[in-house]
Design a protein that fits this description.
It contains eight helices and two strands. The protein has helices at about 10, 15-25, 30-45, 50-60, 75-80, 80-90, 105-115, 120-135; strands at about 145, 145-150.
Length: about 170
Amino acid sequence: MTRNPIRPSQIITEKSVENALRVLLAIGGSTNAIVHLTAIAGRVGVKIDLKRLNALSDSTPVLVDLKPTGQHYMSDLYAAGGVGAVLRELKPLLNLDCMTVAGETLGERLKHEEGPGSTARCADFFGAAREGRRARRALRLACSNGAILKRSAADPTSSRGKAGRWCSPR
């Protein structure tokens, strides 16, 4: 029996791109990832609107405080449950009906991963990140003259990011 392969066009949709953006925002991911995600989405006709990106940024908590701008390492995120734990934390904000590469919806996948203690191991990790990020949540994702400011790299008390590059909060 031959299985019909899942095609990228079945997985990459406006809703799945929104999910990817939420995860990227929650982990304080690279601004380069937005460029790559935009290119991938564009291949299937999904446009990433800057106003929508700002709205997602405003409603997505920054959960992970990773280096180079944060205090934790990727191994700390892995120990706290990895991307699966991030997805479980973001579950109320995600489009759970999106198809995954495994041929099941994101909601079905997350249901398989739920169980006793599955979120307990990451509670301290995410709790500490949330507390440290409340002030930064007030900054908007700034875009002027082609520059994008990542919230996790922003210092809410000045117009300079942690890396020392000038940025203009709006």
